[in-house]
Write a structure and sequence with these properties.
By secondary structure, this protein is mostly beta strands. 6% of the residues lie in helices and 26% in strands. It has two helices and nine strands; from the N terminus they run αβββαββββββ. The strands form two sheets. Strands 3, 4, 5, 7, 8 and 9 form a six-stranded antiparallel beta sheet that branches. The protein is extended, with a radius of gyration of 23 Å.
Length: 196
Amino acid sequence: VAGGADAANEIAVNDLRVDRRTQPLTIGTADPEFSWVISTDVRDVVQTHYRIIVGTSEEAVARGEADVWDSGTVASAMPFNARYAGPALDSTTRYYWRVDVRTNVHPDSVVSAVTWFETGLPEEEWGEAAWISGPEGDVAVDRFDLTDASWIWYPDGDPPLAPDEDRFFRFSFEVPTNRELVSAHLVMTADDVYTA
């Protein structure tokens, strides 16, 4: 086993996840689960302690300051199933977090990069929501009739086969002059492969 600072320099903490997802947008649980991976070429490295820091400022969390929750130093060899135990999380809010890990090869913490997760709407805030697929309300599979559907990029509207070439789509919009765009989310789906 390598010792001292050399061993610490060869250890990284990465693949940070919340509820098993990387930078999830719609965390709906009150006590999300944090997990991470310890990467090293050093043999027999075992996590001995961890500390999770959660906050609303990326810069503050990077400095090790938590304005939402600090787990404190927890004795544990498990880099998973670390449950959030701080104050109630606000809905539709981005939270930044990092984890500091101690191992058996060096007493100093190995600090992860800062990452984030976002909370969704709690169940009680969906009370007035309704399906937008049709005036009747609930979705019924037999109402989806694609008879008049057409390829949106093909001028003739009904090709026997989709064209093999790549297709690119663009949408423009204007932000009102009295508003400032802070963030945006793109939600999309398509047949076969697509990138955004």
